[in-house]
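Dear support,

Our group has been running a series of protein-ligand predictions, and this particular one with pyridoxal-5'-phosphate is the one our PI (initials K.S.) wants archived with full inputs and outputs. We had some confusion internally about which version of the output was final, so please treat the block below as the authoritative record. The input we submitted was:
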Amino acid sequence: MEHLWNQNVKKLTPYVPGKPIEDVQKELGLTEIIKLASNENPYGPSPKAIAAAQEAASMNQLYPEPSNRELREKLGMEYGIDSEQIVVSNGADNILLLISQAFLNPGDEVIFCSPTFSVYKSTTLLMGGVPIEIPLNDQYQFDLDGILEKINEKTKLVYVCNPNNPTGTVVDSDELESFIKKVPDHVILVLDEAYAEFISIENYKMGVQYVKEGYNIISVHTFSKLYGLAAARVGFAFASKELLKPILAVREPFPVTRMSDAAAIASLEDPEYRDFILTENRKGLDYLSDELEKLGFSTIESYANFLLVDTGKEIEPLYQDLMKQGIIVRPCTSFGYPNHFRVTVGTPEQNQKFIEVLRKVLEN
Ligand SMILES: Cc1ncc(COP(=O)(O)O)c(C=O)c1O
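Confirmed final output from the archive:
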């Protein structure tokens, strides 16, 4: 039947997610499982978000308000930008797909560093675009000059995942600004800032500021990480009204459910909860990197809610051993790092348990 497929679909490889808890329960018959594999928020959504989603469920007979006006207005206030410069959709993944659908013609080139989030490549291939991958340097940092060198008249999009998944590394503010100024006008720079709220560098300038300054930038965010709403599927992006026009033209009519929209709005109304998550995340990162280094691993300084860990040898056996003990981490083989795993910051109890189990597994 493959002859019936869209030609571009044949080029795709399925997305490799962190292993779901349900699969491990089924395969290994375990009941207690700690999943630290998908950069989810270990504390869950704000209680206010849960209550708002429950209340909205009673209105499920009505289609949601299609433009997510109230959510955009709240986001506009939160990030200091006109709500007309915001699009909301069904997760950041969906926004990345909309960007490709809106802008890519067959043969257009799309540049990004590698390894990074795999969706840039798959959505490019789907539209018949040509992915151009520039390796991260040996410090796991973006090679921004390498990107600039590859820009030509065929380049349409450049992706910078900041902080980068799976490395957790961040582009230095001054370097980012100087890069942005050098990107030519015919190129759209997509800053994937799914983890940017976790950046703990004082006065770090986020993508939304550059959007306000008028650069050809789309800054992509999500409620899945900091706000703990991964299953609700709400992503948002900031861009000029001109850049949003084609994105809105391809967006499906009601991409965000009433319940998810209400949960996202209520999350923004709970800054104390968000601050708690940020504080705990920082402590968790410090704890995990200290303990992992004590166990002889190298960790890469992270500005997100996860840590990349170099174990110095093939990761698969350790990954399997941890899983048998109910701990799911993310092996990074699919990212091109066969010796590394990525671990999400959990609650203090989850982090301690993970280190305890890891220590035992290594002893055996
Ligand atoms: C860098 C990056 N961008 C986008 C996403 C997708 O987020 P969402 O859950 O909003 O689709 C993820 C999810 O892990 C991510 O790591």
